[in-house]
């Protein structure tokens, strides 16, 4: 049944001032019905209780070697710290969860150590094709772009799709035309190239030619996507993800990151950004599944995220990780790879950053949600 039942205004009646192509918000309901309808779909009726803002980020899950040079490790940690600080500054200044997510991801897209924006992996044909998505949990609005090759910060274009068009996803040249219209920076495709990613592709191509499985674990499994989830002082959640995809991917392949519900999702109770073998995140509708467990079934966040990331996806043959945040500020960062670039920042304003699997990221000491049995069922 449509939200709002009998109060839904017929689609044909678009109201005064309507012009074709305009985003009208065609569902009009009385306020109390709106409240019930929004709650049923996981949309936050605006909370006015002050909440401590939280920001969680990732820079990709994968095989992260302990023999990474100290200089590279330091640079990665510095970039993660900067992304946390930039995003958190927006939250502290009263900005929205969306602002924080976009700011943090922009920092990581601009840093060549991550597989998003500059430093994106190469396709089989030697080009960079970038995907990104953003979602506002308080309204369930979302925007995404796929296969763009000239957009410096795909996360900003994903946000423009959400805010400036009636659509959720644009791809390729059409998405780039919107970037131009909206004054979003376009660059020459050579901007994205880094020598490290190029050499990764060359190794993968040699292995392809010899019909060998990819021996280079970084090529096969180093994902490196970036993502962020945030809770703002008004209790609104948002999620975003940006990626170059997987090294040696076929031309036109689109992963989970820009697919709402697969690699990126947020509602009134939960926000998730994934990183890993995208086909498995798409098939398990991973991010949405975690949030449905949390928001609709009242499963504690850590358990919900672990069930999808560490049980269901591996049982299907996939791997990866995710960052998840609920409306009370609980954080979960599950992954089943050797490591995951990750970080979070909360009430004390201190950035926490970790890389390796056995490295304490500080989330274990955070207060844990009550066991499911003690939580009232809806
Ligand atoms: N999930 C991304 C994809 O499959 C890759 C990643 O997370 O690094 O495109």
CATH architectural label? 4-Layer Sandwich
CATH class type: Alpha Beta
Whole-number tally of structural domains: 1
Helix content: 25-40%
- Put simply, the count of helices is 10
Strand content: 15-25%
By CATH, the superfamily comes out as (Glycosyl)asparaginase
CATH topology: Glutamine Phosphoribosylpyrophosphate, subunit 1, domain 1
- Sum up the overall morphology in one term: globular
Overall pLDDT score: 85
**DSSP E strands, number:** 12
State Rg: 20 Å
**SSE ordering:** HEHHEEHEHHHEEEEHHHEEEE
Distance between the termini: 20 Å
Q: Can you summarize the main beta sheet?
A: 8 strands, mixed
If you had to describe this structure to a student in words, what would you say it looks like?
This protein is α+β, with helices and mostly antiparallel strands and 378 residues long. The protein has a single domain (51-374), classed as Glutamine Phosphoribosylpyrophosphate, subunit 1, domain 1 (4-Layer Sandwich), CATH 3.60.20.30. Helices cover 32% and strands 19% of the residues. It is built from ten helices and twelve strands. The strands form two sheets. An eight-stranded mixed β-sheet has the order 4-3-2-6-5-1-11-12. A hairpin with a 4-residue loop joins strand 2 and strand 3 (141-148). Helix 2 (70-92) packs antiparallel against helix 3 and helix 9 runs antiparallel to helix 10. The longest helix has 23 residues, at 70-92. It starts with 30 loop residues before the first helix and ends in a 22-residue tail after the last strand. 49% of the residues are buried. Residues 1-39, 44-48 and 369-378 have low confidence and may be disordered. It binds aspartic acid. Aspartic acid (ASP) binds next to strand 8.
